[in-house]
Design a protein that fits this description.
alpha/beta; six-stranded mixed sheet; globular; Pyruvate-ferredoxin Oxidoreductase, domain 3; single chain; about 200 residues; 8 helices; about 20% strand
């Protein structure tokens, strides 16, 4: 059995990016190690484009899905603005933030009623909240492999290579097998490929 007192992950995404699936993959990986797991969700609008925040907590004594203010060990950001919103609440200077830099525009930004901030501005503000940030275009990587909806798997792989990751790769692969419904082997191969590419690059 693993000995982890408490580990808190926030997944910031919008509907259609697989944030909820990612929370279950990670939670299942932790369960396989005999850890107590709690998963919570805040859904603005769960359909495509709506805000989705998921919370994964695991450890030996976890009883609540609620992550305290500034209490995230890791923020997995599938969408830039949503990552920034999560960081404002849950990040501290030691929180690892993994940011997918591919934005998903809302109707209001598409028609010009609002302006989507530049990625550089978002990154600059994220650095105000945490000293540990890794930003890359996870969506492009997934798209290059013919898996445009597998951004969540690419972000998971980036986390899996980091020094913050407390679980083993095989447990994540078992989680992918259990919760990914289509092209399972392709998703596993994508996960392994990104792990190999990013090893030693993520804090």
């Amino acid at each position: 059995m693993y000995s982890i007192k408490e580990f808190n992950i926030v997944i910031a995404s919008v509907g259609g990016q697989g944030g909820l699936t990612l929370s279950r993959v990670i939670g299942y990986a932790a369960l396989l190690k005999g850890l107590s797991v709690r998963i919570g969700e805040t859904l603005g609008m769960s359909q495509r484009g709506g805000v989705v925040q998921s919370y994964v907590r695991f450890g030996n004594t976890i009883k609540s899905p609620l992550i305290p203010y500034g209490g995230a060990n890791v923020i997995l950001g599938l969408e830039p603005i949503e990552t920034l919103r999560a960081a404002r609440i849950y990040a501290n200077k030691n929180t690892l933030i993994i940011l997918n830099t591919e934005p998903i525009h809302t109707v209001t930004t598409l028609v010009g009623k609002e302006t989507y901030p530049s990625i550089n501005d978002i990154i600059s503000e994220l650095k105000m909240y945490s000293d540990k940030l890794y930003a890359f275009n996870a969506t492009n990587k997934a798209r290059s492999k013919g898996l445009p909806v597998a951004t969540n798997i690419v972000v998971l792989a980036a986390f899996a290579t980091s020094s913050y990751n407390p679980l083993d790769l095989e447990s994540y692969i078992e989680g992918i097998k259990k919760f990914i419904r289509r092209r399972v082997e392709d998703n596993i191969n994508l996960f392994k490929e990104v792990v190999s590419e990013l090893k030693g690059k993520v804090p």
